[in-house]
Amino acid sequence: MKISINQAPKHEGQKVTIGCWLLQKRGSGKIQFLQLRDGTGFMQGIVVKENDESLFETAKGLNQETSMYITGTIKADDRSSFGYEMEVEDIEIIHESHGYPITPKNHGAEFLMDNRHLWLRSKKQHAVMNIRNQIIKSTYDYFFDNGYKKIDPPILTSSSPEGTTELFHTKYFDEDAYLSQSGQLYAEAAAMAHGKVFSFGPTFRAEKSKTRRHLIEFWMIEPEMAFYKHEDSLEVQEQYVEYLVTQVLEHCKLDLERLDRDTTALERIKAPFPRITYTDAIELLKEKGFEDIEWGDDFGAPHETEIANHFDKPVFIINYPKEIKSFYMEENPEDPRTVLCADLIAPEGYGEVIGGSERIHDYDTLKQRIEESGLNLDAYEWYLELRKYGSVPHSGFGLGLERTVAWLSGVQHVRETAPFPRLLNRLYP
Q1: CA dist., res. 14 & res. 221, Å (int)
Q2: Rounded to 5, what percent of the chain is helix, strand, coil?
Q3: What is the pTM of this model?
Q4: Of 1, 239, 297, 346, which is the most buried if we count CB atoms within 10 A?
Q5: Do domains 5-95 and 116-417 have the same CATH topology?
Q6: Measuring CA to CA, which residue among 240, 241, 232 is closest to residue 191?
Q7: Residue ranges of the alpha helices (H) in 195-309?
Q8: Residues 313 and 273 sit within 8 Å (Cβ to Cβ)
Q9: Of the candidates 57, 59, 58, the residue with the CA atom closest to the CA atom of residue 45
Q10: How far apart are CA 315 and CA 345, in angstroms?
Q11: EC number(s) per UniProt (predicted)?
């Protein structure tokens, strides 16, 4: 019977066959311990010399990453986190590996990134990708279960959703086009048709940043909701993030353990989340020793970390100055200098994971903001038209997948959270 490693608990005491690779091995003159992987998990296989000397010699000669069919009996093993192992009775080599470059020793980051196509096979990278996969699954579950429809905005666009110059330019036949920075504007159009929608796709930022929080290509989850005010949107964000955390804790226990993730920090992530206004955050930073920061300045990573450290779970920074936020954000009626927006700052130094706002729903106001921002009015005519035919208050937000994976898995650099990350100096492999 052929099974996968993750099915082993259902086959205790049975003889089975597993297609797998050799991750590592160790042993003595009498026994070989084979660390096996098959994509679904990791398990130890044991080969005892006195049981079958020929099989023992085969096991002893195996090289790292050799592929094989391995047959044996599944046994309980309380010493391993997986809880099961195999008493090996037969090994059928499929392909013998020689000179695998990533050996069981420390390697530099650049070497590992050059070999990303192979580094993905390691236990820790496997765990990170499992957590990423769970976040993706849980995202679909959350939004579908709560009445949202998925829409797919175009990746090629004629203008910038954010109104910035950090765009990748290309030719679209005889027109100029850009790789999308965000699906938000298109999601707004879809929300006017379907009420509650979300998009989930790749976005691109031509930002020459080398920080541990930045990628050139990354994935965004962007819900947009008709008839939702800013406060309504904040509640959705809290519920969604809490759901992601609980699902990862429930379904990725072995992965979190493999990454040495302190889960007590994640177990505290329960809604509602604390909130602090931008203005109060400036005062807090001044009290913490950031004397140079002034009202109107944007926050950098040290500022976000300091604010997050003041709380024991994610914190919303709300109502940023109008001048440092995007043109489409609704003005704050209690302070016209600011807009109805929020950034959700993750604890433990992981920075902003969500940015959101209530959108301007008045035609004349939005038109004025587009003109004040120096944008091409013709390029945004379709977006303006959403305010001409039954406009309603609406809100939305964007969650960065890779930053969220980094936070929940506890890895220090966002490059480990994408299968093949695109960085300022990296387009290979």
Answers
A1: 43
A2: 35, 30, 40
A3: 0.97
A4: 346
A5: no
A6: 232
A7: 230-251, 253-258, 263-267, 278-287, 301-309
A8: yes
A9: 59
A10: 5
A11: 6.1.1.22
Question: Which residues lie below 8 Å from residue 219, measured CB to CB, with a gap of 6+?
Answer: 200, 201, 202, 203, 400, 401, 402
Domain extent listing, the chain: 5-95, 116-417
Helices 401-409 and 123-145: angle between axes, nearest 10 degrees? 120
- Could you tell me if 182 and 390 are in contact, meaning their C-beta atoms sit under 8 angstroms apart? no
Task: Tell me the three state secondary structure of residue 326.
Answer: coil
Q: Which two tokens stand for residue 387?
A: 């305010």
**Furthest-apart CA pair in the chain: how many Å?**
85
Is residue 307 helix, strand or coil?
helix
**Cis peptide bond prior to 272, omega within 30° of 0:** yes
At residue 164, the pLDDT reads 63
> CB neighbours of 58 closer than 8 A, spacing ≥ 6?
91, 93
Cβ(189)–Cβ(386) below 8 Å: yes
The values of phi and psi at residue 211, to 5°, are -75, 165
Out of 3.30.930.10, 3.40.50.620, 3.40.50.720, 3.30.70.420, select the CATH number for domain 116-417: 3.30.930.10
- Residue 52 neighbours by CB distance under 10 Å: 16
Pair 201, 178: CB distance under 8 Å: no
Cis before 429 (ω within 30): yes
Rounded CA gap, 131 and 125, in Å?
A: 10
Tens-of-pLDDT digits for all 429 residues of the chain? 999 999 999 999 999 999 999 999 999 999 999 999 999 999 999 999 999 999 999 999 999 999 999 999 999 999 999 999 999 999 999 999 999 999 988 999 999 999 999 999 999 999 999 999 999 999 999 999 999 999 999 999 987 666 566 899 999 999 999 999 999 999 999 999 999 999 999 999 998 988 999 999 999 999 999 999 999 999 999 999 999 999 999 999 999 999 999 999 999 999 999 999 999 999 999 999 999 999 999 999 999 999 999 998 999 999 999 999 999 999 999 999 999 999 999 999 999 999 999 999 999 999 999 999 999 899 899 999 999 999 999 999 999 999 999 999 999 999 999 999 999 999 999
Rounded to the nearest 10 degrees, what angle do helices 230-251 and 123-145 cross at?
A: 140
